[in-house]
User: What shape does this take?
Amino acid sequence: MIDREKITPDKIIAMKARGERVPSLTAYDYPITRMLDEAGVPLILVGDSLGMVVLGYPDTTYVTMEDMEHHVRACSRAKPKALLVADMPYGSYANTSSALENARRLMDAGAEAVKAEGGRDIIPQVRAIIEEGIPFLGHLGMLPQHVREEGGYKIKGRVETEVNALLADAKALEQAGAFGIVLELVLAEPAQKITAAVRVPTIGIGSGRGCDGQILVTYDLLGMFPWFKPPFVKQMLRTAELSKEAVAGWMNSVRSGE
Ligand code: KIV
Assistant: This one.
């Protein structure tokens, strides 16, 4: 990514039109946001995955608006050129008025766009947010905020009815004005079909290579959370292991009086 101009939602859409992929990563604090931004990542998501990898909860449903605001503020202090997107946490967009109020709170904390999980079921909320001038990123497929009802992280798009529903949801989000759609744990073939059906970029996570972009939890990519490794993650660094080795080396030097 050579363009170090400020990234906007329109620029993310234009990347798809040019056939340019959208590599995206999560951040929850100032140094990681700065590091990803200096590496040229165009889209940084303050994901509610922070519930697991930073706050130690079993899933994302424990994350509150206050948690999100706190971490969005920290990330926004890095003033990234990347587009800074914030996740709307569980229960924060149950109706249009709460969706609008909470989207505004995330923008006030420094987000430049918000993301929420769902398709046709949340279109009134999506429209209200976009009409307010707040850019919106969709999220379809496996919806982590529903993990407890679903009894696990289940792959989507195995049957025709599910594929058709995903296609209808993606088109509805695009029509409502979403600038992109995250596709989580969707089989590669339906993910490709959805990608071809919409003008806005699809950003896959565990959904094959046919999406317009890919997103990962940075802690998974860099091996910072070794206690759970999603099977689709290509880990590029063993940060936790290397850190333990560094700490052990430092402790030895202290013990030996160096
Ligand atoms: O919370 C999150 O990290 C996400 C993923 C898409 C990476 O929503």
